[in-house]
Amino acid sequence: MLRLALRVPRDHADLALAELLELVPGGVEERDLGDRIEYAVYGAPGELPALPDLQAAAGGTLVEVVTEEVADDWAERWKAFHQPITIGDRLHVRPPWADPAPEGVEEVVIDPGQAFGTGAHDTTRLCLELLLELEPGGALMDLGCGSGVLAIAAAKLGWDPVAGVDHERESVAATRQNAEVNGVEVAVSGFDLLRDGPAPSAPTVVANLLRPLLLAVSRAGFRGDQPDQLIISGLLREQADEVAAAFERFGLKERDRRTGGDWAAVLLCR
Ligand SMILES: C[S@@+](CC[C@H](N)C(=O)[O-])C[C@H]1O[C@@H](n2cnc3c(N)ncnc32)[C@H](O)[C@@H]1O
Fold first, then answer.
1. Taking the alpha carbons of 105, 108, 109, 113 in that order, is the dihedral positive or negative?
2. Given this model, what pLDDT does residue 222 score?
């Protein structure tokens, strides 16, 4: 097993991470090296992203790539990296191997597999915080559902019916499997938000996508029910105004914004 680590300057780290997560949606290990941040992925030779792709992801800011053989404990280290989180004392998101939620706290069990989304990433956590602010009920659509964490949390909180779409087969499979493990119904299907036309919609929509994809959704619009409330995430702080404004043509206005690290998520309501 190999550990492939990229080192980037601290002030470019969030941008590099956003790009990297497109290549390795299952997540990366992060280490703080002072003026540099190291992101590492684990895999067998041949399974890891190619060096030119990594260089492109780092956008010319790559300082160093370090490859090392790792001992058999890599799986344990990977598990240690996926830590449970509790949001607003109401929602506990954990991997299958972590202890159950404290009593009275709604639990979501997520095995990320090959899909993005353990709940712990800032972009997902901020979405969950905004979701907890809404009155649950009615239909909800999760655009770019990854491991299904947002859709499953919504179903647990009381939205019904809940659906999700993603263009990656692994994400569709992971959402389906995680929904079953959590005992909730999520209608999940393959859909490419860049190629398949207006986005599937519902009165409540969550979209943890990066800026370019959110702007593409704002241009293509929504099919069927137009959203009355839309949570957008996956935005760097300085991108949030621009992307929120792009949804104004749907009658959606900013009601709340959460930030964490360099990331921002915005709740837009009619
Ligand atoms: C940042 S992840 C969010 C995953 C999950 N919703 C969460 O909050 O943890 C973005 C997701 O969008 C999906 N995605 C990226 N491009 C897409 C596209 N063109 N069409 C549909 N889904 C896409 C990715 O596969 C990934 O699962």
1. negative
2. 98
Domain residues of the chain, as ranges?
2-78, 83-269
Tell whether domain 83-269 is in CATH 3.40.50.300: no
Q: Which residues on adjacent β-strands are paired with residue 37?
A: 8, 32
CA angle at 208 for the pair 139 and 181, rounded to the nearest 5°: 60
The residue whose CA has the least distance to atom 11 of ligand 1 is 144
Q: Is 168 in the pocket of ligand 1 (CB under 6 A)?
A: yes
- Token pair for residue 247? 């949804």
Q: Report how far residue 196's alpha carbon sits from residue 213's, in angstroms, rounded to the nearest whole number.
A: 13
Q: How far is the CA of 131 from the centre of ligand 1 (A)?
A: 17
2-78 belongs to which CATH class?
Answer: alpha beta
167 Cα: distance to centroid of ligand 1 (angstroms): 8
Question: β-strands 204-208, 229-236: how paired?
Answer: parallel
Residue range 123-164, pLDDT digits in tens: 889 999 999 999 999 999 999 998 899 999 999 999 999 999
Pocket test for ligand 1, best of 213, 232, 233 (most atoms within 8 A of CB): 213
**Cα of 34 to ligand 1 centre, how many Å?**
30
The 8-class DSSP code of residue 207 comes to: E
Among protein residues, the one with the nearest Cα to ligand 1's atom 6 is 145
